[in-house]
Write a structure and sequence with these properties.
By secondary structure, this protein is α/β, with parallel strands linked by helices. It is 24% helix and 27% strand. It starts with a helix and ends in a 13-residue tail after the last strand.
Length: 227
């Protein structure tokens, strides 16, 4: 068990279709057992608004031609689109003996430390999960825990069209301004941010053995075993 805690897979996902990746996260989580290694998935989504379990319709102002998907993560409504780094954390929290609040802190600190390497002073807030620069939000968080395992994760704005955020109240906050790293002399590409961020997450999660893979996992490998 301890050996598994030292391992993690960092997976580059090629498809940007939100619903197919969401379904894959659910399948991975539902079918995994304690023999399955934790994974981080690096994704760049096609344009989509996602509405968390606490999401209220009033925060969808003018979604227009961008689809809205109601999902099973915590939080309110947010936007995903090209130029935004999304990292999904499929972590066996029970095996690692950490709680959801611990995971949130790990994610926020990894983002802050990554941006710090670029000379950006970013910070987290106790009352509003995510990461901020000069009171503008640069990264959003949303998690779900099922059977002691997490899925969903973080979204870090890199170099994207931020105008769709004006069609919603981001994270349920009217007038919340968004910012992206390319505007503040930070990473200008997904990979420039993804490499240091995922490595920091892996280390913070206690993994010293990282396996880099491409594409969605073969979910047949993690089917429930017959009892």
């Amino acid at each position: 068990m301890s050996d598994l805690n030292n391992h993690i897979v960092i997976r580059q996902i090629d498809t940007g279709n939100y619903q197919s990746i969401w379904q894959s996260m659910q399948s991975f989580t539902d079918n995994r057992d304690d023999s399955v290694i934790d994974e981080l998935w690096i994704v760049e989504h096609d344009p989509v608004f996602t509405q968390g379990q606490a999401g209220k319709e009033e925060h969808l102002l003018n979604t227009g031609d961008i689809p809205v998907v109601k999902v099973d993560r915590g939080g309110q409504v947010t936007y995903h689109g090209p130029g935004q780094l999304v990292v999904y954390l499929l972590i066996n929290l029970r095996r690692k003996k950490i709680g959801v609040r611990d995971l949130v802190t790990i994610i926020e600190q990894a983002i802050v430390d990554t941006l710090g390497e670029f000379g950006i002073k970013a910070y987290a807030k106790k009352d509003a999960p995510g990461v901020y620069i000069d009171e503008k939000k640069v990264a959003s968080l949303g998690l779900r825990v099922r059977r002691g395992c997490s899925f969903h994760g973080l979204a870090l704005n890199i170099d994207m069209d931020l105008t769709p955020f004006l069609r919603i109240n981001p994270c349920g906050y009217a007038g919340l301004e968004m910012v992206q790293t390319s505007q503040v002399s930070g990473p200008k590409t997904i990979q420039e941010a993804a490499t240091p961020l995922t490595e920091k997450l892996a280390i913070a999660l206690g993994a010293s053995n990282i396996d880099y893979q491409q594409g969605l996992p073969d979910l047949m490998l993690t089917e429930k075993r017959a009892v």
